Amino acid sequence: VQLMVNPFSGALIDRIGYDLPMMVGLCIMFLSTATFACGRSYGLLFFARSLQGVGSAFADTAGLAMIADRFTEENERSKALGIALAFISFGCLVAPPFGGALYQFAGKEMPFLILAFVSLADGFMLLLVMKPFKDQLKDSQRPKPPSVPIWRLFMDPYIAVCAGALMMSNVALAFLEPTISLWMEDNITTDNWKIGMIWL
């Protein structure tokens, strides 16, 4: 779902700015994680996961756009993007053991309720730094330079190499996520915190 929504969220952010799409993305992620906490059926969990992809498409893209807009010098922008991506990797590293331990010792609902609270707190912090709505409307009405079509970006060899590297790294994780936990439950252990620790 995120793969399909990302091009549209990027075009929307290019037109109206990053503040409102980021807030929309955080609100959607709050709703999706709260739905995960309450969901019991496969259909509801599938809907929550799809909704999470939509929210992530808006929040992630808007976050990177905010960094690119706030840090205009190349050195500062590279450093800020590096810090942001490092925290993304940190979250991917810490979340599985943290979520596994919470799931085992506090129940299914607790990890998702904590994530929903984090999304809500992030939304409140965004309210402190985002521009007023009137200023956003003025900025969106200003003439902007024509944007480069996405197909032309993929023709750039550097972008193509980066996109391919990102795709392959995520493909490896996508194969592991649904299989390694089931294999460990069948062959090694049924403790959720131990299954989460394997991702470290």
TrEMBL record:
<keyword id="KW-1133">Transmembrane helix</keyword>
<dbReference type="GO" id="GO:0043195">
    <property type="term" value="C:terminal bouton"/>
</dbReference>
<dbReference type="GO" id="GO:0030121">
    <property type="term" value="C:AP-1 adaptor complex"/>
</dbReference>
<comment type="similarity">
    <text>Belongs to the major facilitator superfamily. Vesicular transporter family.</text>
</comment>
<dbReference type="InterPro" id="IPR050930">
    <property type="entry name" value="MFS_Vesicular_Transporter"/>
</dbReference>
<dbReference type="GO" id="GO:0030122">
    <property type="term" value="C:AP-2 adaptor complex"/>
</dbReference>
<keyword id="KW-0325">Glycoprotein</keyword>
<dbReference type="GO" id="GO:0005277">
    <property type="term" value="F:acetylcholine transmembrane transporter activity"/>
</dbReference>
<dbReference type="InterPro" id="IPR011701">
    <property type="entry name" value="MFS"/>
</dbReference>
<dbReference type="GO" id="GO:0007268">
    <property type="term" value="P:chemical synaptic transmission"/>
</dbReference>
<keyword id="KW-0472">Membrane</keyword>
<dbReference type="Pfam" id="PF07690">
    <property type="entry name" value="MFS_1"/>
</dbReference>
<keyword id="KW-0813">Transport</keyword>
<keyword id="KW-0532">Neurotransmitter transport</keyword>
<feature type="transmembrane region" description="Helical">
    <location>
        <begin position="150"/>
        <end position="176"/>
    </location>
</feature>
<feature type="transmembrane region" description="Helical">
    <location>
        <begin position="110"/>
        <end position="129"/>
    </location>
</feature>
<feature type="transmembrane region" description="Helical">
    <location>
        <begin position="20"/>
        <end position="39"/>
    </location>
</feature>
<dbReference type="InterPro" id="IPR036259">
    <property type="entry name" value="MFS_trans_sf"/>
</dbReference>
<feature type="transmembrane region" description="Helical">
    <location>
        <begin position="80"/>
        <end position="98"/>
    </location>
</feature>
<keyword id="KW-0812">Transmembrane</keyword>
<dbReference type="GO" id="GO:0042910">
    <property type="term" value="F:xenobiotic transmembrane transporter activity"/>
</dbReference>
<protein>
    <submittedName>
        <fullName>Vesicular acetylcholine transporter</fullName>
    </submittedName>
</protein>
<dbReference type="InterPro" id="IPR020846">
    <property type="entry name" value="MFS_dom"/>
</dbReference>
<dbReference type="InterPro" id="IPR001958">
    <property type="entry name" value="Tet-R_TetA/multi-R_MdtG-like"/>
</dbReference>
<feature type="domain" description="Major facilitator superfamily (MFS) profile">
    <location>
        <begin position="1"/>
        <end position="200"/>
    </location>
</feature>
